[in-house]
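Study this fold:
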Amino acid sequence: MAHTAEQYEQISEQLEQVRQEIGRYIVGQEETIDFVLYAILADGHALLEGLPGLGKTMLVRTISKVLDLSFTRIQFTPDLMPTDITGTSVIERMPDGTLHFKFQEGPIFSQMVLADEINRATPKTQSALLEAMGEKTVTVLGDTKQMAKPFFVLATQNPIEMEGTYPLPEAQMDRFLCKIHVPSPTKNELMEIMKRTTGANHVELEKKLSAEQLVDIQQMVKEVIIAEDMLEYAVDLVVATHPDQSTAPEMIRQYVEYGSGPRGLQSMIKLAKSRALVHGRFHVSIADIKTVAKPALRHRILLNYEGEATGLQTDEVIDQLIESIQQGKLI
């Protein structure tokens, strides 16, 4: 069912209330909050990267409360096993003395799952999330179970340079709609954080949306229009990330090993549509695409040895792409 312009404006106002409510508890991090909300509205998963103690876990918990979603937190450690995430079948004795298997659900069976410090677990355990993130099902002993609706995995990770981390495989990184960098707080933000966290005042968060309303909004995001030239611009961005393409800038050819696949393009379009809806529009603008390009593509561009040796960041590569492409045409 198509929605009217007035309905889009109303939803935009509701989402602004959500942002303000989160801001009552979380100090700063406006861009981080925006991108997490874009991912949720696009029905995708988000990876938050930042140093320990920046409030990543608290941000996810706060969002779950404001959106009235069931919440579980999984602390990833080197000894965590896949069944600790998905659950397992246990033997249960019936009143008549007979025994039968009963499935004990793991913490992944929730609407919002926080995979805390995901890169501190082994790749085998990390992979336990792949089916749930991709197909929104979990298969245990041949029995496939559906996830909750809506279902999100919001994962946090420490920078891979830190001790005791396992880099996420490329296949799992690709399952995340976006990768969000969480910056360190400024001096003024640190002052406010201390006032809120070391004082006697306690903030009671209000629920601003229900799960049912969120599902409806996700449908509205899909209905946001993207014009042909906007789509072509996004496609040109993704194609130019491949060093073997004639349209690739010199930096891409010199420093990039692999570019983004189709999921990168899908992520960029979904995030752009979410941003348009949050701003009360039912069409995607060029600014939407440029704004979401980094979180959508930064974990899907792999640098070669020379690129890593020079200390190049994928964000710099994306900046170069945006400068090189103007609405679908190289300049």
